[in-house]
Amino acid sequence: MLAARSLGLLLLTSLMTVGGPQAAFAYRPFDSTDPAVAEPGEVEIELSPVSFRQSESGQTWIAPQLRFDYGVAPNWELVIEGQGEFHRGSKGVMVDNAVFLKTVVREGTLQEQTGPSIAIEFGTLLPGINDEAGFGAELAGIIGNQWSWGAIHFTAAATLTRDNRGEMFLGSIIEGPSDWTVRPVAEIVYEREFGTSTEVVAALAGVIWEAREGLAFDFAVRQAAVDGEPETEIRIGLTFAFSTR
Predict the structure, then answer these.
(1) pLDDT in tens, 182-217
(2) Phi first, then psi: what are they for 137, rounded to 5°?
(3) Whether the Cβ atoms of residue 172 and residue 188 lie closer than 8 Å to each other
């Protein structure tokens, strides 16, 4: 319960600082991201109240998963994220905690300009609660473009894990037209941790429903092979945005 209470406190704090809704979004329900950031003074909350994972090690409830984005300056965004996990027969943990800065280095179609948008995200991996001791670091490059038929975004990241090992991440997002109220989305991911046998290949398919300006719901199923073992995750969540101005 400590994981849920800690993330709940972060969510409550963010809600107390904000005002009216805006249209800017980060990206649920993906592992990778897009080359866009919140406008200065805007807050974006990506929240999954509950998701579910089934793997060879058993069932895991993810509750909650939270990402907090805040526009600190033009083309700059602060990101804080983490999630609570509850395995059957064990105490809860708080994992994947991190603080990042994300900046747009080239304005493109995602900023209503021409050509591809390019962004960089970098920051620190933080210790977890009851798991994931130590610190790490990550640097990611993101490129994306959108057209009338949809959009494609590609993320490549290099990580120094909390165990002081190198890790690489490659992810590609494909989505339907942005003017559709409900648009289909998909993602392909490859991860490799060096110095171990850990390798992940995953595919995700789902939908994003933009209920109104500043509010979107998502549903997706992610099927992965983790060191050759099957893993299925059902992701359900929402994204909403506010302005502090």
Answers:
(1) 999 999 999 999 988 889 999 999 999 999 988 999
(2) -145, 155
(3) yes
Q: Bridge partners of 52?
A: 61, 234
Across 17-21, 72-76, 164-168, 170-174, least confident range: 17-21
β-pair partners for 186: 174, 205
Spatial contact of 49 and 237, defined as CB atoms under 8 Å apart: yes
| Tokens 């037209």 belong to residue | 177
Residues 241, 214: contact at Cβ < 8 Å?
yes
> Beta strand 117-125 with 136-147: parallel, antiparallel or unpaired?
antiparallel
Name residue 55's amino acid. S
Tokens of 164: 């002081």
Fold of 2-243: Porin (2.40.160)
Domain boundaries, the chain: 2-243
pTM of the complete model? 0.87
d(CA 190, CA 206): 18
Sign of CA dihedral 226, 222, 95, 34: positive
Phi-psi region of 203 (alpha: psi -120 to 50; beta: other; left: phi over 0): beta
d(C-alpha 155, C-alpha 161), whole Å: 18
